[in-house]
Specification:
alpha/beta; 2 domains; Metallo-beta-lactamase, Chain A; 6 helices
Length: about 180
Amino acid sequence: MTEHLIQAWKEDIRIRTTGAERANTIGYKVDATDIRPGMIYSEDGVEVTAFAVHHGSVPQAFGYKIKTPEKVIVISGDCAPPSPEVQKACENCDVLVHAVYAVRPLKQVSQELASYMRQFHTSSSEVAAVASKSNPKTLILYHLLTAGTTDDELLAEVQSGYQGKVIVGRDLVAYE
């Protein structure tokens, strides 16, 4: 895929690397590795394991378990139930970062969109069930599909089924 993208942008790359703009000549290059479930990285006490998750009709979707000497972090990836792999990977993890959609606005959209959401994504109540079973120290919600639902409303939806620490995640914010 990346080879085809580079070919498609060949003229733009030529202009930006040899023309008047003179960007660096390696910044556009991609070193991608296709992955499969299992260990995908191990170095200096950090291990990353990929696991398959259900994401509607997408044939390959992954979640990730990151083990460091200090913490175990599990990222759900973009998934929908049933994804028991997330729960298994997270059992008593320090942090579970899970994609979520708000339930309340689902009642206001077309049946087609609601069906899509249920097939490809995880609702706030489903995230709460996963967290209740896997017991992370902190649950961080991301890939927020809220359709106007406020952070407080989303938190209330999740906390109605999960009593642990829950944070509505935001890009570029560090959480402890």
